[in-house]
């Protein structure tokens, strides 16, 4: 297997007496979907923020390997480099589409923003690309000039995904991308994400408390509890044969449909 | 110093502001010139005119004014509007400098909303009155965030605005305060001059200084600096001008104001730059003194 895209070791983070991360290590390889599951307050969102460079850990390192194969420490590269990374090689899909979209800007402008941020200056080209991406995420291209606030929740989330993937990032962080959507919309969204990720060969770090979503999307799973990774392995292995008592509880508490 | 009563400047220091304040503004100006297009904060003072009337411009003018300077003040291109007349009179009282309406004669030109039609020279300085120095303020409400965007040259958002304009109106609808890139680095608001004037800023021989009194910011464009209006490759920047010629001087190239002449839909276009218009009228009058004399009585030579 090739060298990991993102490599974190010995991450520690405390909020006062609460240990949000306790000696956490994680690797993500190119094209791989890794899910972090756990209950609320287990430290999974903190881990995502630390890995994405939005929060500095008390101890530990996060290395990102660029396309040329050089490893960069995420927390030592400076804000300018991190921002550039965030709009080229990386993407972030928020749980709430409103956090990831510009609600006062049309759907086309939302998709085009990342293109313009990296220097696209041809209006026709940007519009063509935006139309293409709206089709890919199953939004009617006729709505390209509509504001996202006129879209349904599921459409907003799909628009956010289009906006993130338009620059073909190598690594996408997803924070509960299906949260707050009804079950049928969730299922369609998961199908869409799975198809796009497989198609584009993107590595995804997915944070979720939804075991079913993790099973559908992820190649590997990390189970977190109280800031520690209590179990990790291939998705099927972890979910079908959980070793740690907490994982067993987590898997057992999923309602069978 | 000239603080004692009976001094030539009515008890005020030369050019109204005290020397320490002027020094502070000059330091901000030097920094602004050193980093073209970058907004430098300064301690704007209360001035004897309301915010929005040119408190920033008047402080910059006061800081750079010398006794031998010749001052021209224009408001929307006109030398004879209230704002222009009172600022010119203010400086003739507190600094004793000569005022002028002739663009070519002036060494300092304080302006609101226009750049004179007559090309400026290296010997002149153009001082803009700026209401809102931040070009991103309608797009990003947090000033801390806009400062970070300037620091990182992260200007994709400004193009999103232009994209939205084209998507909605078929063209960029921004007709004034059209954003520019200065020296290929800083995004800058040219103050509310019409987009028509933007090309004049590019490689202008005169020094351009911008003062925003309420927002307490100063920025500058040094002589011969590259100033580019933002655009798309397939929607290039086009300066807009009313389609017509000046009813007084016949100019077909100057920026025009539309003037209503009665309440029955009568209207005419005249040059917004009054000095340029008058000079052209005078030149026309001297070139053809009494050759055909087409009713000189009604012409109204002014």
Automatic annotation (TrEMBL), chain A:
Keywords: ATP-binding, Lyase, Nucleotide-binding. SMART domains: AAA. PROSITE patterns: ABC_TRANSPORTER_1, ABC_TRANSPORTER_2. This is Phosphonate C-P lyase system protein PhnK. GO terms for molecular function: ATP binding; ATP hydrolysis activity; lyase activity. Residues 6-251 form the ABC transporter domain. InterPro entries: AAA+_ATPase, ABC_transporter-like_ATP-bd, ABC_transporter-like_CS, P-loop_NTPase, PhnK. Gene3D superfamilies: P-loop containing nucleotide triphosphate hydrolases. SUPFAM superfamilies: P-loop containing nucleoside triphosphate hydrolases. The keyword S-adenosyl-L-methionine does not apply. One of its GO terms (biological process) is organic phosphonate catabolic process. Signal peptide: none annotated. Pfam families: ABC_tran. CDD domains: ABC_NikE_OppD_transporters (cd03257).
Automatic annotation (TrEMBL), chain B:
This is Alpha-D-ribose 1-methylphosphonate 5-phosphate C-P lyase. It catalyses: alpha-D-ribose 1-methylphosphonate 5-phosphate + AH2 + S-adenosyl-L-methionine = alpha-D-ribose 1,2-cyclic phosphate 5-phosphate + methane + 5'-deoxyadenosine + L-methionine + A + H(+). Belongs to the PhnJ family. Catalyzes the breakage of the C-P bond in alpha-D-ribose 1-methylphosphonate 5-phosphate (PRPn) forming alpha-D-ribose. One of its GO terms (biological process) is organic phosphonate catabolic process. InterPro entries: PhnJ (IPR010306). Residues 282-302 are annotated as: Disordered. GO terms for molecular function: 4 iron, 4 sulfur cluster binding; alpha-D-ribose 1-methylphosphonate 5-phosphate C-P-lyase activity; metal ion binding. It is an enzyme of class 4 (lyase). Residues 283-302 have a biased composition (Low complexity). The keyword Protein biosynthesis does not apply. Keywords: 4Fe-4S, Iron, Iron-sulfur, Lyase, Metal-binding, S-adenosyl-L-methionine. Its EC number is 4.7.1.1.
């Amino acid at each position: 297997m090739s060298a990991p895209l993102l490599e974190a070791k010995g991450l520690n983070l405390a909020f006062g007496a609460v240990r949000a991360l306790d000696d956490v290590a994680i690797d993500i390889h190119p094209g791989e979907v890794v899910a972090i599951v756990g209950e609320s307050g287990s430290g999974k969102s903190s881990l995502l923020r630390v890995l994405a460079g939005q929060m500095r850990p008390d101890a530990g390192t996060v290395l990102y390997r660029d396309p040329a194969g050089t490893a960069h420490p995420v927390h030592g590269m400076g804000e300018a480099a991190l921002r550039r990374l965030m709009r080229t090689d990386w993407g972030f899909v928020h749980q709430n589409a409103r956090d990831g979209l510009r609600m006062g800007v049309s759907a086309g402008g939302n998709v085009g923003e990342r293109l313009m941020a990296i220097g696209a200056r041809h209006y026709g080209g940007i519009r063509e690309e935006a139309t293409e991406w709206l089709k890919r995420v199953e939004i009617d291209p006729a709505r390209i000039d509509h504001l996202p606030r006129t879209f349904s929740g599921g459409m907003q989330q799909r628009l956010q995904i289009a906006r993130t993937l338009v620059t073909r990032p190598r690594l996408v962080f997803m924070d509960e991308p299906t949260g707050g959507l009804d079950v049928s919309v969730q299922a369609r969204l998961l199908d869409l994400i799975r198809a796009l990720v497989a198609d584009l060969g993107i590595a995804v770090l997915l944070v979720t408390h939804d075991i079913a979503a993790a099973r559908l999307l992820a190649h590997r799973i990390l189970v977190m509890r109280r800031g520690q990774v209590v179990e990790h392995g291939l998705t099927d292995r972890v979910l079908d044969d959980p070793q740690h008592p907490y994982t067993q509880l987590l898997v057992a508490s999923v309602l069978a449909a | 110093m000239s603080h004692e009563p009976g001094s030539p400047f009515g008890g005020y220091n030369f050019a109204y502001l005290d020397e320490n304040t002027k020094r502070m503004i000059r330091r901000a100006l030097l920094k602004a010139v050193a980093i073209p297009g970058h907004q430098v904060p300064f301690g704007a003072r209360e001035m004897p005119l309301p915010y929005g009337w040119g408190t920033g411009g008047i402080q910059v003018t006061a800081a750079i004014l010398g006794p031998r300077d010749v001052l021209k003040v224009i408001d929307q291109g006109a030398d004879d509007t209230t704002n222009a007349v009172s600022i010119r009179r203010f400086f003739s009282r507190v600094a004793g400098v000569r005022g002028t309406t002739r663009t070519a004669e002036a060494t300092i030109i304080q302006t609101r909303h226009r750049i004179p039609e007559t090309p400026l020279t290296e010997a002149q300085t153009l001082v803009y009155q700026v209401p809102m120095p931040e070009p991103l303020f309608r797009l990003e409400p947090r000033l801390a965030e806009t400062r970070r965007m300037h620091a990182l040259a992260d200007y994709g958002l400004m193009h999103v605005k232009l994209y939205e304009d084209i998507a909605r109106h078929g063209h960029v609808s921004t007709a004034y305060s059209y954003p520019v890139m200065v020296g290929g680095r800083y995004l800058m608001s040219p103050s509310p001059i019409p987009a028509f004037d933007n090309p004049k800023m590019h490689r202008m021989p005169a020094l351009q200084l911008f003062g925003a009194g309420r927002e307490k910011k100063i920025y500058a464009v040094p002589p011969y600096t590259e100033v580019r209006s933002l655009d798309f490759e397939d929607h290039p920047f086009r300066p807009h001008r009313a389609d017509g010629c000046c009813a007084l001087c016949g100019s077909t190239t100057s920026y025009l104001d539309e003037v209503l002449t009665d309440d029955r839909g009568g209207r005419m276009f005249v040059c917004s730059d009054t000095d340029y218009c008058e000079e052209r009228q005078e030149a026309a009058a001297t070139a053809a003194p009494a050759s055909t004399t087409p009713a000189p009585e009604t012409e109204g030579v002014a």
